[in-house]
């Protein structure tokens, strides 16, 4: 979902990791969560191997415009059109970054 599609949580303040942050959007896998913060960075929590630990791609989770969750993995797209995935490998969470061939968020919407 893009931040604009997540209006239910848009602009709310949440306590994440002991820090109060503005949250634009929260999405979930079966056992983990990812939030796009107001500064367009992503923070994750929950089952580490199922998307709750994004430390392997944390540097790529900046300038994020959309994020989607599968059953055990996440995919995010940044403003430059890069797709970043993390979580369980069988659910496309291969901690990778790829360039999109077309309109970015359309690819994320149909891919995840």
Overview of this structure, please?
InterPro entries: RCC1/BLIP-II. This is E3 ubiquitin-protein ligase HERC2. This protein is mainly β. It has one domain. It is 6% helix and 43% strand. The protein has 1 helix and 8 strands. It has one helix at 105-111; strands at residues 12-16, 19-28, 32-37, 42-46, 64-69, 73-78, 82-87, 96-99. The protein has a 4-stranded antiparallel beta sheet with strand order 1-2-3-4, with no helix packed on it. A hairpin with a 3-residue loop joins strand 5 and strand 6. The N and C termini lie close together (10 Å).
Biggest β-sheet strands, sense, barrel: 4 strands, antiparallel
Shape: globular
| Mean pLDDT metric | 75
Strand content: 35-45%
Keywords:
four-stranded antiparallel sheet, disordered C terminus, mainly beta, 112 residues, 6% helix
List the helices and strands and how they pair.
Layout: E1 12-16, E2 19-28, E3 32-37, E4 42-46, E5 64-69, E6 73-78, E7 82-87, E8 96-99, H1 105-111
Antiparallel strand pairs: 1-2, 2-3, 3-4, 5-6, 6-7, 7-8
Can you give me a brief rundown of this structure?
This protein is mainly beta and 112 residues long.
